[in-house]
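Teaching note: in complex prediction, the entire set of molecules is handled at once rather than each chain in isolation. The prompt given to students was simply: 'Predict the structure of this complex.' The entities are:
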Amino acid sequence: MELRAAVTGCAGFIGSNLVDELLRRGTEVVGLDNFSSGSMSNIAKAKEDEDFTLIEGDVMSEEDLGEMMADVDIVYHLAGYPDVRASITDAKTHFDWNVVGTYNVLETMRQKKVKSISFASSSTIYGEAKTVPTSEDYAPKMPISRSGKASFCSSRTSMSCTP
Ligand SMILES: NC(=O)c1ccc[n+]([C@@H]2O[C@H](COP(=O)([O-])OP(=O)(O)OC[C@H]3O[C@@H](n4cnc5c(N)ncnc54)[C@H](O)[C@@H]3O)[C@@H](O)[C@H]2O)c1
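The expected output is the structure of the full assembly:
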């Protein structure tokens, strides 16, 4: 049976490369992006593939998320506002997209009975770690930026919501 995957942030750096690789492996992909930092050129190749569907939408929209998650097996959640400086100058949008957006993705997964999520966290969750490279179970996790705190919050929420 062919797998069907949803990718938020599909036009971003990581998302677009992931989409290309999933398609190469024969996975059907539904991508969602609001093109705030992503670009159409990143997904030019994917758009030529009949197994790729693009939704120009937002993780803040229940309707867009519902459409994206129809009959999918897994969600790769890569939509985000990774700009650390913007977490100070545009804190509301940063919080909404990075924290509320992740909650919205998880809530839609619950409604649509999608059981698997892959979430891109960030090394910023560790703050100034004393060990580099830093292992996933490093403690204490003391993010020093709002961006790191948002990633930490979203990582923990994703882990606590999945079986
Ligand atoms: N690139 C890295 O080295 C790196 C390292 C650690 C963690 N991460 C995390 O991985 C994720 C993806 O990183 P990236 O480098 O691909 O970033 P990116 O900015 O290239 O991609 C993010 C994508 O999400 C989209 N997006 C943003 N807000 C959205 C919203 N509300 N609704 C729909 N789409 C939205 C943007 O348009 C963009 O295409 C981010 O959460 C980032 O924090 C990246």
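Point out the following to students. Residues 8-9, 11-15, 32-38, 58-60, 78-82, 97, 101, 120, 122 surround nicotinamide-adenine-dinucleotide (CB under 6 Å). The mean pLDDT is 93.
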